[in-house]
Amino acid sequence: MNLPDSDTQQNTSNEDKEAINREQKLIRVAVLGASGYSGSELVGLLHNNSHFKVVAAYASAQATPQPLHAIAPAIAANCDLVVHPWQESELDRLQDLDAVFFALPHETSAELAAQFIARGIKVFDLSGAFRFQSADAFRNAYGFEHPHPELFEQAQYALMEWTQLDPRGMLFAIPGCYPTAATLALKPACESALLVPDARPVITAISGVSGAGRGANLRTSFCEVSLQAYGVLNHRHTPEIAKNLHREVVFTPVLGPYKRGILATCVAELQAGVTEEQVKDIYQQAYQHTPLVQVRETPVAVDHVAHTPMCLLNVHVKAGTLVVVSVLDNLLKGAAAQAMQAANVVFGKPETAGLRGRF
Ligand SMILES: NC(=O)c1ccc[n+]([C@@H]2O[C@H](COP(=O)([O-])OP(=O)(O)OC[C@H]3O[C@@H](n4cnc5c(N)ncnc54)[C@H](OP(=O)(O)O)[C@@H]3O)[C@@H](O)[C@H]2O)c1
Asked: What keywords would UniProt list here (predicted)?
């Protein structure tokens, strides 16, 4: 909608004035990486969130302009927004933004964040560029030198059920999909000292192929995909999970021959004498007020959460062993929905705004 100037405003009807007021209160955002799997999900969520307005959406510089509904018809059938190629010159056009979302390769997020922050635009980054607080930890996990390590200290890690975000902050790091599934599963046990002090939880997590992104890749092409472990003992999400749980973990990711969703089986050794009842009480208490994370008594499955912003947990205890099965949609609670949840909280909106229709 074009806002009328002051001369014409006096002739505007009350209905129009209300619409103008609503428009002026909207949080103005842009999405970079909007043609990718998590970015297109995010534009879909923002488009259906009445508190936000997506003013611009971008793909890579090589892309040709396309409406989002052509890129992601299942997500954005009602969205006419055109996704344009990203050029740095666009920065000058985006001066009046409140926030930008990056659903970009880690290297690109690491490069671009400083320029938006310098313009007073909050950054919500879905990549791994700002999930660590030291240059060494970042280099070890991602294998390149971070161009802006000075931003680490202001980045807030937005695992929403376990973090109180400071809304005055400018940079929000959305956790990885595997770390979200594993951390939500094990954090209550770790925080309540239920585990043997030096126990190393063992996490085996199967992910659908969308976890690898939309770009063409032989390993993830239809005829090549098989149930297959990868990154054994050196996956970059291992240190992120260990940081979240304040202990070492053994993490094995497994590529699953399906499109979306993670099922993580998390096993840990309990302290002597810890009962099933104690463990279940602690998990129920931890997640009694978290709309997007629920503890279930019955088995949980990827199909229960695919296309939803939910994470479901199923907790078992026997003979000193804790097993928590955690399921979520890697593109939603593992990426776009968690970013939406964080932005809602940062801008003082209900935590699940724009997400309710999805569960
Ligand atoms: N997939 C998941 O399950 C998941 C979960 C959690 C976090 N993440 C993280 O979220 C980020 C995006 O992941 P994704 O799976 O959605 O990736 P994706 O499907 O491969 O999409 C990447 C997006 O970035 C754009 N892009 C690539 N290089 C660019 C550049 N140099 N400048 C501007 N735009 C560029 C691409 O545009 P074109 O289409 O033009 O190439 C595309 O829109 C990654 O950092 C990933 O680690 C992904």
From this structure: Amino-acid biosynthesis, Arginine biosynthesis, Cytoplasm, NADP, Oxidoreductase
